Amino acid sequence: MDIYINVKDFGPIEAAEIDLRPLTVFVGESNTGKTYLAALIYALHQHFGGISQFSWTNYFPFLSGIVRSMQDPNFPSRQDAAEYLMLEVFKKLNMAERPFKFSDLPYEVHTQSEHKQKYLRDFSNELKRCFDLEGVSKLIRFTGSPGNEIKVSLSVRDKNQTYWDFEVCVSESNSIITDNINPDLILLDSNDTLRKTEFHEVSDVERLFRTLRTNRWRKTNSYYLPAARSGILQSHGVIVSALIKRATRIDSGPLVDSKFSGMIGDFLERISQYKESEESSKEISRVAEQLETELLDGKIEVKRPAPEAYPEFLYRPDQATEALRMSHSAAMVSELAPLVLFLRSIVRQGDLLIIEEPESHLHPGAQTKIAQTLARLVRAGVRVVITTHSNYLIQQIGNLIREGELQKQGEFTSESADYLKAEEVGVWWFHKDKPVQELPFDLVEGIEPEDHLDIAEDLYNRSAGLQNRIEQTKGKDAVESE
Fold first, then answer.
1. Residue 460: half-sphere exposure toward Cβ, Cα within 13 Å
2. For 389-429, what is each residue's pLDDT tens digit?
3. Contact, 55 vs 1, CB < 8 A?
4. 282, exposed or middle or buried, with CB in 10 Å at 0-12, 13-18, 19+?
5. For residues 239 and 454, what is the distance between their CA atoms, to the nearest angstrom?
6. CB neighbours of 129 closer than 8 A, spacing ≥ 6?
7. CB 283 within 8 A of CB 380
8. CA-closest candidate to residue 20, choices 6, 3, 37, 45
């Protein structure tokens, strides 16, 4: 499944056209829209309850109800029409030599499912929640030459067909949403095992819906680790207690009209309600363990003073007899602890994990290891989006792609367990007053943003110039002393 997202005049972004890969990287100057686009992706994912191939199958009970109501004996005339419609559906289902398409479903089913999608999808509310805004029009491009409206579109496809599209246009005065399921969407192809049986009853169509939902639709979750995660983890107990006081008017001080963005609020809620899970993915949990072993040199522990109390998060260094509070731990520990916790008990295969600046508070060597963590998550089936300013992380991602290229040639190195395929990685370069640009992988250059090269060259030239001046000054002093 390929997910394409286009935006125009969205916050600081003039234009962007991206597709989400197993690893999607946003790099570039500050205040160019990396976080805005990451937050938009989260908002889309939250709004649709997970972006899937056949989003309409989420309404299976609703669609089954339509099919059954078509055979209501209290309405003989409608029953006759329903019988004719169902006979047409059965005929198409039983023609195994041709694909069975979305448009082949009874007219009432596909038109009503489209209507229900539109009815349930007021995307503006999710945008306002995630960006903490009173109105979505506030997002109309506010740097450079402002546009007249925001355009956001989402398209879900694979290499052979489009599944469905979604588009929202917001101006100062109104918003227009369009949401279309591809009528030529193939639900069953001629090779599908379901085509080996014949369809004769309404229950057969219901079985079709159940099969599509079970085998080709899965609700995936999205999680956002904000740049403020370290401070939130250290002080979440104080924050939650203060919020409860405000909510119950225990505190008699003046109320302040200030809110969290949706991403920070969701993160705080998950941290405050955190519980260890016995149903965690072993492969993803192993990535958390590797983080603790290779970077933290210790374990992240969860303690509850009472069953209903908020959890307390501690760090126990290797060989230590006592665990430390997060506020007494190194910045790197409190920065990576949320990632460890989410991987240990929350994130599942197929989920979307968005991480703002995973390199924050990390030594350059640790930043390269975070790139390996990202590769491990991709191998475990997690879709990852990151924003970053780290050239070390970008360079290591390039090395991991080279590892993947070696594997394609049948060659392996000591680090081959952590690798990325070039087609699994999309790196997008953000810069001011220009459209977002994809940075393709180059076997020699890797993935190198142009501004990173310019900065490195400027630093080198500055260094060389200062060295020359120092040498010239020494020579001049030596001549004068003679």
1. 6
2. 999 999 999 999 999 998 888 887 666 678 999 999 999 99
3. no
4. exposed
5. 42
6. 43, 262
7. yes
8. 3
